[in-house]
Amino acid sequence: MRSKSREPLQKTNVNVSKHVSLIIPEGESKLSCIILAYEVLLAANEYYKMHDRTPVFKVELVGEKKKNQVHNGLFSIQPGKHFKDIDKTDLVVIPAIDKNFDNILNINKTLINWVKDQYIAGAEVASLCTGAFLLASTGLLQGRQCSTHWQATNAFRQLFPSVDLTTEKLITDNNGIYTTGGALSSMNLVLYLIEKYYDRETAIFIAKRFQIDINRSSQSPFTIFLGQKDHEDKEIRNAQLFMESNVSEKILVSELADKFAIGRRHFDRRFIKATGNTPAEYLQRLKVEAAKKTLEMTRKTVNEVMYDTGYSDTKAFRDVFKKYTGLSPLEYRNRYNKEAVVN
Predict the structure, then answer these.
(1) Which residue blocks in the chain are alpha helix, DSSP H?
(2) Which of 242, 308, 311, 309 is closest to 271 using CA atoms?
(3) Is 39 within 8 Å of 1 (Cβ atoms)?
(4) Alpha-carbon span 329 to 339, nearest angstrom
(5) Are the C-beta atoms of 224 and 286 separated by less than 8 Å?
(6) How far is CA 157 from CA 14, 94, 104, 281, 342, in A?
(7) pTM above 0.85, yes or no
(8) How large is the C-alpha radius of gyration of the chain?
(9) What is the full DSSP assignment across 1-60?
(10) 69 Cβ partners below 8 Å, 6+ apart?
(11) What pLDDT, in 10s, does the model give residues 321-333?
(12) Which domains does the chain have, with CATH numbers?
């Protein structure tokens, strides 16, 4: 079934209300994500009222139960409406969910179908952080780009291999479907939506009020490469451990394949299947992660860090570092090294 064409987004001073369904899934949702999204959306309304303009958003919390327990029962959320009572909405916002993804997706099948139906009927859909798991379960992300929290990358790729996961991007925008990176960076997507539905002036005011960096475009500087070892390929896991133990060495992939008595092409295929990276990419990411830690914790110069991680070409080191962090080595050190900040 084809979706209806997207209506033009709300423009300034047009007296048309847009209904926003901030959904509360069954299971563990991130309370902070829900509260922040709710407050930031309402703050845009308040700003319009201050300037004698009609607010754009009508925000409602919608779910299946009258009360939803979160954080192991320490808190509860009370959705104002059952989602089945919402005949039409303009924007569905999906908050972050907790780590037990399979269970949460299983108990929210009816809600997932409702989200899909709303999109087909013309609504836009935005997922915040790991809310991308619920969004992907609708099938709406097939073949599309998507972002989520960098720490959930491996789990997401295992569940949704046909989705183009681009966690280096802070925000993805594809025909009325929006996703964003993790944790507090979700508020950058909320700002993005405020700018689209309201205007730039309102988004800037809200950014200043909540002290959100409105110009942030990547979560790469915050990503920690953990590697993917949750697989059954023993030889590939041993190859990963060897790489991690020899980060300062120059390792050729052909020599690595020979070491584990696997043909080069077969080694590449098995490595990609197990880790989601080519062997060369995995080596680069290990070296960049080692360089990041050294830049954060020591007084070593960029050149010293470069040599420590097996690079001898300054440009090559700088290019690969920026590829995975979005920053040059010097910019990274100045941002995260305590002594560099103090000085």
Answers:
(1) 31-50, 101-107, 109-120, 132-137, 153-159, 186-197, 200-210, 234-245, 253-259, 264-275, 279-297, 302-308, 314-325, 329-336, 338-342
(2) 242
(3) no
(4) 15
(5) no
(6) 41, 19, 17, 17, 40
(7) no
(8) 23
(9) -PPPPPPPPP-TT----EEEEEEE-SS-B-HHHHHHHHHHHHHHHHHHHHTT----EEEE
(10) 75, 76
(11) 999 998 999 999 9
(12) 18-222 (3.40.50.880), 234-337 (1.10.10.60)
Report the alpha-carbon distance of residue 312 to residue 304 in Å, rounded: 10
Token digits for 29?
Answer: 């949702």
The residues near 190 (Cβ < 8 Å, ≥ 6 apart) are 36, 37, 40, 41, 93, 128
Q: Looking at residues 307-325, what average pLDDT do you find? A: 94
Q: How many other C-beta atoms are found inside a 10 Å radius of the C-beta of residue 284?
A: 19
Of 76, 80, 34, nearest to 60 (Cα)?
80
Pairing relationship of beta strands 177-180 and 124-127 according to DSSP bridges: parallel
Beta strands at 68-70 and 75-77: parallel, antiparallel or unpaired? antiparallel
Find, among 98, 86, 77, the residue nearest to 21 by Cα.
Answer: 86
Mean pLDDT rounded to a whole number for the chain: 89
Structure tokens, 137: 């379960």
